[in-house]
Amino acid sequence: MNYEIQESYERGHRMIGIYIHNIRSINGHTDFYGGNPFDNFSTILNGQNVLLSQIYPTYNWVRDDGYNNFSKWIESAAIAIGR
């Protein structure tokens, strides 16, 4: 996953993160809430070292109603880069 984030950032892609830890598996289990992978990367912005997690939003699929809001999240990311 780190490679993909690094490459996407270097190519100028807009990104979002989605936590899916609380979606039940076929066996009825859920996973633990992991860290934000955008915290592993930083960039210089206006002379300041900034984590990518401060630039790119993350959403929680269940809490933020991803089923109904996913297209809005994508649209917001596209608007942020002028598409």
Explain the layout of strands and helices.
Blueprint: H1 2-10, E1 17-19, E2 42-45, E3 48-51, E4 58-60, H2 66-80
Parallel strand pairs: 1-4
Antiparallel strand pairs: 2-3
Number of helical segments with 4 or more residues: 2
Rg (CA only): 14 Å
- Which regions have little confidence, pLDDT < 50, spanning 5+ residues? none
Tally the structural domains.
Answer: 1
Q: What would you call the structural class?
A: alpha+beta
Report the order of strands and helices: HEEEEH
Strand fraction? 15-25%
- Return the average pLDDT rounded to an integer: 90
The largest pleated sheet is described as: 2 strands, parallel
How would you explain this protein's 3D organization?
The chain has one domain (2-80). It starts with a helix and ends with a helix. A hairpin with a 2-residue loop joins strand 2 and strand 3 (48-51). It is of the alpha+beta class. The strands form two sheets. It has a two-stranded parallel ribbon with strand order 1-4. Strands 2-3 form a two-stranded antiparallel sheet. The radius of gyration is 14 Å and the shape is globular. The protein contains two helices and four strands, in the order H-E-E-E-E-H.
Summarize this entry quickly.
The protein has one domain (2-80).
What brief labels describe this structure?
83 residues; alpha+beta; two-stranded antiparallel ribbon; 17% strand; globular
